[in-house]
Design brief:
With 205 residues, the protein is mostly helical. It has nine helices and no strands. Helix 1 packs antiparallel against helix 3, helix 1 packs parallel to helix 4 and helix 4 runs antiparallel to helix 5. It starts with 10 loop residues before the first helix and ends in a 5-residue tail after the last helix.
């Protein structure tokens, strides 16, 4: 049986959007309103960190949004995994707004990142298992596999950061942050592989 793909905003997706909006709100309210020029200058120093935090949350939301646009699944597995994702996102916000005990912060942050992207691995793997019911095209199957690969890579970066922060302590804590720049390399490699595989797909007549 072929499942109909719903592309309108469901209650599950609407609830998810509300949770992501609340997470962004938590970031905003963590910033104190400056009352003097010196406080404003200090607040501006934290603007770059806030921008990174916002970008991370937006990336998570975008991946979740893309999943619903592609498959429109609302089965129990998708609902359960979405619930886990939203729980982790809300918990994940707090390490983003802290700046003390850096080694432990990277451990918590890395575990949060690994958990978030592991949920995406499970979501896309679930869609792949239901590929016949969803009547996925060869291109959609490839995009699904690429999404699994991408999220496995990002989850691995989070775990690597945890390992560096835990084993290296204060001495190597900087590497626990720098390793996140490898995400761009992972995404480039996945994209490169995807371009090669797309050329092998049968062309429509």
């Amino acid at each position: 049986m072929v499942l109909p793909r719903k592309h309108d905003v469901s209650r599950l997706e609407g609830f998810s959007d509300a949770v992501f909006a609340f997470a962004v709100t938590l970031l905003v309210v963590s910033l104190e309103v400056p009352r003097t020029f010196n406080e404003l200058r200090d607040a501006m120093r934290g603007f770059f960190a806030f921008a990174i935090c916002f970008a991370l949350l937006f990336q998570i939301w975008w991946r979740h949004h893309t999943y619903f646009r592609r498959y429109g699944l609302e089965d129990p597995t998708t609902k359960a995994l979405t619930g886990v994702l939203l729980f982790v996102v809300l918990f994940y916000v707090y390490p983003l707004i802290l700046n003390e005990q850096i080694p432990m912060l990277f451990e918590i942050y890395g575990l949060g990142a690994a958990a978030v992207f592991s949920v995406f691995v499970a979501l896309y793997a679930h869609a792949y298992r239901r590929r016949r019911e969803l009547a996925l095209t060869p291109l959609e199957l490839l995009d699904t596999r690429l999404s699994v690969m991408s999220n496995v890579g990002l989850a691995s970066v989070g775990l690597a950061s945890v390992a560096i922060a835990w084993l290296g302590g204060q001495r190597f804590v900087g590497w626990a942050g720098w390793i996140y720049f490898s995400i761009s390399l992972i995404e480039w490699q996945v994209s490169r592989y995807g371009r090669r595989e797309r050329k092998k797909l049968p062309t429509r007549s």
